[in-house]
Design goal:
This protein is an alpha/beta fold and about 475 residues long. The chain has four domains: about 30 residues, no CATH class; about 140 residues, Rossmann fold (3-Layer(aba) Sandwich); about 140 residues, no CATH class; about 80 residues, Antifreeze-like/N-acetylneuraminic acid synthase C-terminal domain (Type Iii Antifreeze Protein Isoform Hplc 12), CATH 3.90.1210.10. Helix content is about 35%, strand content about 20%. It has 17 helices and 17 strands. It has a six-stranded parallel beta sheet with strand order 5-4-3-6-7-8, sandwiched between helices. It has a five-stranded mixed beta sheet with strand order 10-9-11-13-12. Strand 12 and strand 13 form a beta hairpin. It starts with a helix and ends with a helix.
Length: about 475
């Protein structure tokens, strides 16, 4: 079989000498083989925000990848972000998709449909952060036989299980984004299970205090200024940052993890216990074993802030973790001997990653999808949901402003409870009018809002609920 045939089938070939060859599966070597064959992985990026820009800084210097096109509603901003990512201007001056493909350059446009419709692009990265757009472009990409890297976790938690199923049926990959915490947590869980350990809990660290649930884009600065030095406030989107502060992003990300791995939401979602990175095995285990979780097999996010407002030392604020059970006396002895992070009994132990690099690591997902036909985490079931929850007393007639806004935050909730109670997904709680008053702290229901049942995202969500409610 020729080198080109192997490359076409997703394999890589390394020459040992003039007569002997061997097939290797290392991602880097596979990318080098695609480069040598003149067939780099062709990529389209939708959304040139922070995550996308971080990937752009790496993809330009990654052998075997070609960023064919970038779609962003603000082309001028996309150009500015390319400059920030150290791209030479001549690299992104292609006048069309065809021009970009012919000369190995990049085309920038405000029309994302050009990317998802072009048969020469193998992988679409959906990084808009908007649930409705994410669902729309993922569906169209899957229909056009393209792999989808769903940076847009907001869309994944609305309809990811259905999107992933449709991708499998179409013979393409639907994947969470490596570098973002959900994919890294999924890898922790897979590692533990593949090594024969029972996963007790998994999650990440964040900065949290119970008062943060009421944070708005106006008051978020009072919190951010305590731990971030931001000289130019116009350089960040306070609504986006607020979704990290008010607990929403944690609920979204842990829901994505549950639906990809089979872990479950606790009855009342996340409790955000303070913990140092060395205490996770002690704290993130079931209450029956002396921990703080209601049971094993759930997600939890730990806080870098004690309830009195003081900082937790050696916290895991940017990191990820898994707690697993060492099932035998011998395994428990090994846990101690090899400097893992056990609880006092050594029955439970933790492994953590201290940080994540977001878009700088995204190429792992792109290469895995295109070359190995593997995801770096993908929804398999509907175990968890994220529900719009009132930040304050809301009145009928008000317009909801969605994630990170003034009205609601996202609370992780078991999917069975969400379906039974008819709760409104956070991702669909934007630009919709309330029909009823809702008390602060109360989870909203579909019946509380004026819902356009003809909206594509709503229709896909309803289809997902029907498909996964059994």
């Amino acid at each position: 079989m020729s080198i080109s045939h192997l490359c076409d089938r997703g394999f890589a070939v390394a020459c040992l000498d003039s007569t002997e060859r061997t097939v290797v599966v290392n991602l880097h070597h596979m990318l080098l083989a695609r480069k040598a064959a003149g067939k780099p992985v062709t990529i389209g990026l939708i959304g040139a925000g922070k995550f996308g820009t971080m990937f752009l800084s790496q993809v330009r210097v990654t052998d075997g990848m070609h960023m064919v096109a970038i779609a962003d509603l603000n082309v001028k901003r996309a150009h500015a972000h390319l400059d920030v990512a150290c791209w030479p201007k001549e690299q992104y001056q292609a006048t069309s998709m065809e021009d970009a493909l012919k000369h190995g350059s990049t085309f920038v446009t405000d029309n994302a449909d050009l990317l998802v419709d072009n048969p020469a692009i193998e992988v679409i990265i959906e990084a808009t952060g908007d649930p409705r757009n994410g669902i729309k472009y993922a569906l169209k990409s899957i229909q056009n036989k393209k792999h989808v890297i769903m940076v847009n976790v907001e869309a994944d938690v609305v309809a990811g299980p259905l999107l992933a199923r449709k991708a499998r049926e179409a013979g393409v990959v639907y994947s969470l984004a490596w570098g973002d915490q959900p994919a890294l947590i999924c890898e922790h869980i897979d590692w533990a299970r593949a090594a024969g350990f029972k996963v007790v809990s998994a999650g990440k660290g964040t900065r949290y205090h119970p008062t943060y649930h009421q944070s708005t884009p106006d008051t978020v600065w009072d919190i951010l200024d305590k731990y971030l030095k931001i000289d130019d406030r116009n350089s960040i989107n306070p609504k986006m940052f607020n979704s990290f502060v008010d607990g929403t992003k944690s609920g979204i990300e842990m829901t994505a993890v549950c639906n990809a791995t089979g872990l479950e939401s606790q009855t009342e979602g996340l409790s955000f216990p303070p913990a140092t990175r060395f205490e996770h095995a002690e704290i993130c285990k079931p209450k029956s074993a002396g921990g703080l979780l209601e049971r094993a097999g759930v997600t939890e996010v730990t806080s870098s802030v004690y309830r009195d407002g003081s900082d937790v030392p050696h916290n895991l604020v940017m990191g990820t973790y898994v707690v697993f059970e060492a099932g035998t006396d011998y395994a428990q002895r090994c846990v101690r001997e090899y400097n893992l992070l056990p609880d006092k009994s050594a029955k439970y132990a933790a492994l953590y990653r201290p940080t994540h690099m977001i878009g700088l690591e995204l190429g792992i997902s792109v290469a895995s999808a295109a070359l190995r036909h593997e995801s770096t985490g993908s929804a398999q079931m509907f175990n968890s949901d994220v529900i719009a929850t009132a930040k304050r007393d809301l009145k009928a007639g008000e317009m909801l402003d969605g994630e990170g806004g003034f009205c609601v935050w996202g609370k992780q909730t078991p999917a069975k409870t969400s379906l039974k109670e008819g709760y409104l997904p956070l991702g669909l709680a934007h630009s919709v009018k309330l029909k009823a008053d809702v008390k602060a702290g109360q989870r909203l229901k579909w019946s509380d809002a004026e819902i356009d049942e003809t909206d594509l995202a709503v229709k896909v969500r309803r289809e997902m609920e029907a498909a996964f409610s059994q």
